[in-house]
TrEMBL record:
Molecular function in Gene Ontology: DNA binding
Chain ranges passing through the membrane: none
Protein name: Uncharacterized protein
SMART domains associated with the record: HTH_XRE
């Protein structure tokens, strides 16, 4: 059957399951929201798609993306180009692309506009060191997808990849502004979202994307660093081991050397020199394998001053 909008599919599913609008909305949203969706006057958020998917035991998020998202060739090309520039950390290109696309009609709302805000947030933080403005861009992007977004309620919702990246950027802005408590709250909220809805979902229909897996490793690494710098060695060790175990299980080498170097730092701090030496050698090997020559050379030099015990025979 051809559906003109998502609401037609939703109404058919609801009736097939013999559910009233009130029953479908229960513990999810208001009955009025369900009515607006079914009439095609409103579009579902990622959070709502996730909750509806659970109710019907089918992945409506993927179905929605495949058949109901309205994107043009310009929109697709633009977001792809921005993502590629962000991935390569090319700030000049990000700036050029933002200037190119932000005035176009295709980038004035929704998914595409979130990409614009994310690019602007990164430029403000990394190029201008203006973390306050970067934080404002993060919130503007997040409010597009989740109108009820607040730092205190981050774990209560699910998010698109772009919004997950914006939340991570939010945490780093807070840390850069020396607002440690806010930064940790955001980072731990993001961890809860990733573990609940992406990495270890309760329903097998949801599979973690490569982006979510990569972000999960990054969050664990950052948590380990921040706990270490604040003297909480136990939690720092917990998160770094969690990151190593996950990276090893997923055969992901991208952040594994850095995770092992963090573990080396913790072990040495605890004067566990035998384990630290093993960890040091693992880290050297991983930096060689991943061809991170600059970091390899830096660790070799650092060991002479900071980790002399690992060099003893």
């Amino acid at each position: 059957m051809h559906y003109e909008h998502f609401g037609m599919l939703l109404q058919e599913l609801r009736k097939k399951h013999n559910m009233s609008r009130e029953k479908l909305a229960e513990n999810i949203c208001t009955t009025k929201q369900i009515y607006r969706l079914e009439k095609g006057t409103s579009e579902p958020s990622i959070y709502l798609l996730h909750q509806l998917s659970i109710k019907f035991n089918m992945d409506l998020n993927e179905y929605y993306k495949m058949y109901f998202t309205k994107n043009t060739l310009v929109g697709l090309e633009g977001t792809k180009a921005i993502n590629s520039a962000i991935e390569s950390e090319n700030l000049d290109l990000i700036k050029t692309l933002i200037e190119k696309y932000q005035g176009l009609e295709d980038f004035k709302q929704g998914h595409n506009l979130r990409h614009i805000y994310y690019g602007k947030a990164l430029l403000s933080a990394l190029s201008d060191k203006d973390y306050t403005t970067s934080l404002q861009y993060c919130f503007q992007g997040l409010l597009i997808e989740c109108a009820a977004f607040q730092v205190d309620t981050i774990p209560d919702y699910t998010y698109s990849n772009t919004s997950l990246a914006l939340i991570n950027c939010t945490s780093q802005n807070y840390f850069a502004m020396d607002k440690q408590e806010e930064g940790m709250k955001v980072l731990q909220g993001l961890l809860a979202v990733l573990e609940t809805h992406h990495i270890y979902p309760a329903y097998p229909m949801f599979q973690a994307s490569p982006f979510a897996k990569k972000l999960y490793q990054t969050v664990l690494y950052n948590l380990s660093i921040h706990f270490f710098h604040h003297g909480d060695i136990k939690d720092s060790f917990l998160y770094v081991n969690k990151g190593i175990a996950f990276s090893t299980k997923e055969y992901s080498l991208k952040l594994l050397p850095e995770l092992y170097e963090m573990k080396l730092k913790i072990l040495y701090q605890e004067e566990n020199f035998d384990e630290a030496k093993i960890c040091y050698n693992h880290t050297l090997h991983l930096y060689k394998v991943t061809r991170k020559d600059v970091k390899l050379a830096a660790l070799v030099d650092l060991a002479k001053s900071d980790y002399p015990e690992v060099l003893r025979n």
